[in-house]
Fold these 2 entries.
Entry 1:
Amino acid sequence: MNLKKNLALVAALAMSATVLAGCTKTEGNTPADTTAAGGDEPATTDAAAPEDTGDQFTVMSWNDEVPVKWGETVYTAAKPLPDGVTYNPVVFGVGGGEATPYFQNYMESGDDLDIFALEADFALTFLNSSYAGSLADIGISEDEFANAYDYTMAIGTVDGVLKAVSMQSCPGVYAYRTDLADQYLGVKSPEEMQAKVKDWDTYLATAAEVKEASGGKCTMSVALGGIWQVFSAARTQDWVVDNKFVVTDEVKEFLELSKTLADNGYIDTNAQTWDASWYGRGIDGTTMGMFTCAWGLEGCILIDAAGGVDGPSYGLWNITTGPAGWYWGGTWLAVSSTTDNPNLAADFIRYFCADTETMTHFARETGTFVNNKEAVKNIVAEGGYKNPLLGGQDSYAFFAPAADAVPAMNIGEYDGTVKSALNPVMVDYATGKYASIDDAVKAFTDNVQAALPDLAW
Amino acid sequence: MMASAANRRIRKLSYAKYGYMFILPFFLVYFIFSLYPLIYTFVVSTFRATGTAVDAEMLFVGVENFKDLLFVESPVRKQFFQAIGNTLILWICNFIPQIALSLLLAVWFTDNRLHVPGKGFFKVVMYMPNIITAASVATLFLSLFGETQYNPVNQLLLSWGWVQEPITFIQTYQIKRGIVSFILAWMWFGNTMVMLMASIMGINPSLFEAAQIDGANSAQVFAHITVPSIRPMLVYVGITSMIGGLQMFDIPYLFNKGTDIDEYTRTIAIYIFERYSGATRDYGRSAAASIILFVITGILGAIVFYINSDKDELAEKKRRRKEAKKLKGGSGF
């Protein structure tokens, strides 16, 4: 009997210990590794920022692009870390949309963290928290990013404080098949094509032309998801104003357009983004083009729609801006408020996001469309990048004005959630499940309310 | 009196403490990783985050979260009840064909008169789907049943000329639910079959012989000997499948494009996941939904257990208890 009591006591103690551990969690915001002084020398003599004391330089992201491919292979190779400091890449191997809980757990654990990467959809979840530090605190001023594209700076600025900067710029494009454009529209150059898709009315007229010329075989684009990105970037107002959800005009315009496109067979609504059905039409020539962006050319999307390097439509593509300037995704770098290597962190951010020389080098090596107008100019002056996928079209020369055309809008903290709420509705409305646009908007609003019940409804 | 004194001495000599020492590691792990999170879930369910930032403050709101999910008429409640409905539909649609098929196969494979050849081979092949990771299976099926002429199933149907236009397997929610149920049944029927076979082989063969001598046909043998004898196993299979079914997550979640879950395959577990992950950071309602799921599981488990338990035995127990009471009452005289 006594043993049972003891057992219960042990169990109760173990439980209360964990309860207490749980309670102290919120205090754990102190900089990590303050005790690890082991032979560290300050990396620079920069007087503005505090000294580097950490023996680890930690860069965290959801995938290996920033911490490994860029940080480890490019940065540490070009600039060896000071003695006694080891490079510590933290990679979770998940999609950007799933990163939040991983990041949160890591940050709450208080482990060493200097730099972390963010995507626009969830950037504010972290930039609004105490875990993100101001770039001014590590001695980086806003002026250093004079060459960055405006929209990337707008996204990284929270309440007037610059907290994150982007290493790439990701202007969106309408990619089209040059052979089909010639055959159905008599179009010979990207400029002529742009005139055919310069706004949505012209786009629809062109779609009708293509449909007729091809005998209904050829659509204008594939999957609705890509088109929403264009409208989303054109929004001038946040989804939530004074804690109230506002359906902006873009939603209705977009839904109407989706319906028109679907009703007339200008788009394949059955196609799923990121699936064989998205790429198939590009391979067999039953679509004129598709909406993609700077990272969606030889990295993914368009290369798949071309069927790979040996694919049937490889080299037959060209890109134009499309009906509106827009961007799709991108990666922002933020600095942790608990960083113990502020000078290294500042140098890392400057290397990828501010320094024209290193960014030019980086662009030359990797083909990335960097977020620096001067670097882009340098590359274009050197002869640009004759993209074989685009039949030799200079994608760099093209992206430069496209990135300038992206409207500088702020992102809101609910963008990702709202997008998820809209996705099922847009396909259902386009395929005729809702009787009227008001029903569709109501369904969309209900989805948002179910997802965000704590707004004022 | 003497007996109880002897008992006491024996108890003093008991080696039970060693037993407790051996089970101690399990209980420690259980308390830390199961019981404490369970209790903590109750605590969290009474709080609500005040914003979307990762370190947003949590406010105590009492039973508000439960009220929102269960009683206040709003899209929140609608979505939650839809999730409960989806879970039940998906579970029933996969469990009934699954148990029927595994029972049939189990009876065939164990029947002495049928002598099915290659039993071992079939057993392995049928168990195989269970070995594959659910994630791979869901992704594979999603790609197979894509809705354009570039996805395999539609490609086949089109080339055979069975259909003129690609079938929208995923947008048509009945078909989508059907595919999800099919995947679940296909993955689990082998497992259920093996368990039922083990149970059937444990039945005394003389019962079957006796039935044969008495001239019972296979249907009668099945209904009056096999099923009653494997009832405990049926209860076990039913309850485990139901608990697993209520927590159904991986297949319906991954049988969706990206993280956008449609309203026809959102199960309770997916609902709970959606609430706390992503930008909503709604830990409170997530925990409240978990607790509601816990209660539903408890109730359904009790019902299944009651339906399947031996009624005669229950009646016997009741009778005995009554008698004991009567005897006690009698001695009071």
Entry 2:
Amino acid sequence: MIEQLITEGLAIGACYGLFGVAVAIIYKTSDVINFGQGEMGMISTFVTYHILAQYGLPFWLAFVLTMLFAVLLGMFIEFFFMRPAKDPTVLGLIIITLGAEMLLMGLAGWKWGAEQKDFTFPLSVQKVHEPIPGLILNEWSIGVFALTALIMVLLFLFFRYSNLGIAMRATQQNQNAARIMGIKVERVFSFTWGLSSLIGAVAAMFFAARSVLDPNFMMEPFMRAFAAAVLGGLTSIPGVVVGGLLLGLIENFFGYLWPVWKPIVAFVVIIIILTIRPSGLFARHYVKKV
Amino acid sequence: MDMKRDYYEDIEVFSSGTVLFWSFALFAFLFTLPLYLPSYNIYLFNIILVHVILAVGLNILVGYTGQISLGHAGFFAIGAYGTVLLMTHLGVPFFAAIIAAGLIAAFFGFIIGLPALRLEGPYLAIATLGFGLTIMHIIGRWDIFGGRMGIQAPPLDIGIPQWGLSVLLDSDVKMYYLIVVIAIIMVIGARNMMKTRIGRAFVAIRDDDIAAEVMGVNLLAFKTLSFAVSAFYAGVAGGLFGFVLGFFDPFTFNLILSIIFLVMVVVGGLGSVLGAVMGAALITYLQYDLLKNVDEMPYLGDVLVWVSRKLFTVIGLENFNSIMLGLIMLGIVIFEPLGMFGIWIRIKKYWKTWPF
């Protein structure tokens, strides 16, 4: 029983972590918290659903097309909504991303209606395997673990060795200096949004496979993923994943003991963590200087 | 232009005779409104006025103190549930109940204000958002709050029924007079407060909290006070809202409502009481009237139904509401960050300096 709770908690936690990474990538490069991240993932998942239901293409092809769509969507939002705002305040940025959220949610509701749909995902929660004796995992968890590990490795290599990754880190440290060095900062932002949207879309599909598909389904996972990101520290990508795993464990154990209060665990964790350690567990505390 | 010649001119509630005149003209108009409006529109006006109270309160926090709250639906819910439960379970008279509910909300505002001392910007937005969702879930799970099924507001009696002083407000029009009086008192109260020491401390915190602290503004006291005052306004507005709706459930106070509240303040114009009033009126009108039945909208309705049939689904057309809200939010930040108040200032300046 106890190992079941742990593996299940870690699996859902890895999914939170993955989605949290999507939030953290944008925050790292441009200091924007993207409240529309959940809905960007939601609409990408709906695109997969639409391709599968309407055109009957195989899943892998639908997946590839969706990834393409997700990247374009992220770039679209950056180009048309974030870029035209002149010196927006923090509140202004929040309003823009919330506006994008409302817009996407409305569009999805208009196109696909509010009723819940079943999302056919090749990895199901019901089918279980036993890779090592005593360790029972369902296909969904195996998929999440493998994918999270793969994306983490790819991101590490990307930020370490590729020119674009280095340019993103430079932009994060000092925009003006990066511009002087010849980095096209706007293009870096655009790419950041595309990358983040892609990772978010993958995580959103995993969430949809566990629950149902409707225009609101990403709202609470987004909050939880954000809690995970804050727990680990928004500026450290490995920290976000560790935060996600921790949150998944906390939530699963708490939910086992008091099932009624499971939905609010994440929010209470957010408030407590923000009060005690505002920068999270694995990020350095930033002190404002005059 | 409006040159201030001494300190007392700066702290007057009505800055000039013209403002005083037009304010009283507006009050007179509001008091005679039921004479020329059909009763459905009175219901709409009740909601607008409730939202005006809330938006003015939220503007104290967001516009004047520079903090961010995405959890005001939580305070709103505390006000609504608090008032109704105090009246039905403890038999508290209406005015005592609504003030008590406002104070409970203010207490929660104070609690939420404590982490705000260390948080800023997006982190604060998330913390308050978590608070709002927590309140919604707690209310949805406790039987005393009616659970997910919701709760019925008792008949609105503003007297003290136990002592035989029963003053029953049983129609929208009678309720309108109660709400309009409370709204006017609270709006003037907010405007007045912003001209006192407290209001100036709030503005100082907004402009630079470190500088404010150096100048001797107690951040602990004033940040939490700002949250408490703002939550009090939200609580009172929530108490009235419960009676306007008559029946409500936890899902009435969802995250979208918090977003709508924030949009009211931003669309109206940050840091201006008049702006909050205009923003609340505009957004409420759009949400509760114009965009409620999109397909029956003049001219545009038929076009939208046609577009829906071609590209989208007709059944999902009700979501047009949130598309419009999203577009307004994006447009206001990109094109007019000062909101409707900014537009108003620009028009005023244009005519004052005309023909230059």
